[in-house]
Amino acid sequence: MSYQIGVIPGDGVGPEVINWGQKVLEAAAKRGSLDLKFVEAPVGGTAFLETGKVLPQDSLQKLSDSQAILKGPMGRPDIEAGIVERDGILTLRQHFGQYVNLRPVKSFRGLEAASPLKDNLLKDGVDFIIVRENSEGLYSRMGGISANSGTDINLFTEKGVTRILEFAFDLASKRGKDLISVDKANVLSASLFWRRHFERMAAEHSDIKCSSQLVDSFCLLVLQDPSPAKWDVIVTDNMFGDIIADEAAAIVGSLGMSPSANLNPQGVSMYEPVHGSAPNIAGKGIVNPLATILSCALLLRHSLGQDELANDVENAVQAALDQGLRTVDIAAGGASCKTDELGAAVLAHLA
Ligand code: IPM
Ligand code: MG
Predict the structure, then answer these.
(1) How far away, in angstroms, is 139 Cα from ligand 1 center?
(2) Are 207 and 178 a contacting pair, CB within 8 Å?
(3) Ligand that comes closest to the CA of residue 247
(4) Ramachandran quadrant class, 81 (left: phi over 0; alpha: psi -120 to 50; beta: rest)
(5) Does residue 177 surpass a pLDDT of 90?
(6) 218 Cβ partners below 8 Å, 6+ apart?
(7) Which secondary-structure segment (H or E) carries 188?
(8) Is the pTM of this model over 0.85?
(9) What mean pLDDT is reported for the chain?
């Protein structure tokens, strides 16, 4: 099979991690006899400084012609905060109709010391998945700022809510596990609307154990006991999903270990590390490439249907960690290695 992958190097540490993502995809393609063609499509702060556009038309065309997108983090300190986020990241998610943001939270063996939680809380590992609504809520971009107020409309539509809940119910049913909806229905009308739909659909899915949790309470409980017995599929809105994904990343050791998939189940999906462009460490060769490499595993699984290759990539990550290799974010004060050493180790295990 032959596929085109659109590659957005991004800003800051973006090119460093995307370089390893692409190498890992190339190695996986070789292993699985896939024909992957990579097309570079600059988007972000650097693209803005070079072309005057955060998302140049030519890049958008290349991405539209691709089967999947591998995206680096974007944002630069010399560009006003918000421009790249709105005109780059959010515009891409909306343009491609990527209404699901899948964020698996899975611990890797040997990284317990990198987590701020005590070892006894991590003895069963951590393995849950956040299904974040990715198109509306506080991200619907309705509102504005004036001299004496700032407003964002928390818009939840019937179409937006039902399609993300359906996705989550399907996923929970495939994993054969529980589904927990995280909201703030005791205060927000939008959340109450969400919860009513969740409860209606829960009644139609007697095969799945469903419950609702308030977001503040969720943030507390997941720290007190993050074990797989308690959490499996978590479905939540755009804003809460953004926040709890970072909390969850800390639980498993680092944002540098957190992959994500922006999915349009009928269209072009986009894969990116959860972390940002980290300009403070850009160019130093010390960024953790694993969040991007694990995002490539999601690309293989969700866009190319290559489950086995996706598992191979995840196993190669574990094997590289088993060798004791740690970038500084997961070194827990011990010896650390460079981006290239960790990337090369993953590649060697895949070859
Ligand atoms: C994320 C990021 C983005 C978001 C920002 C950079 C727009 O924090 O992917 O989690 O808020 O979704
Ligand atoms: Mg975020």
Answers:
(1) 10
(2) no
(3) 2
(4) beta
(5) no
(6) 180, 182, 234, 244
(7) none
(8) yes
(9) 98
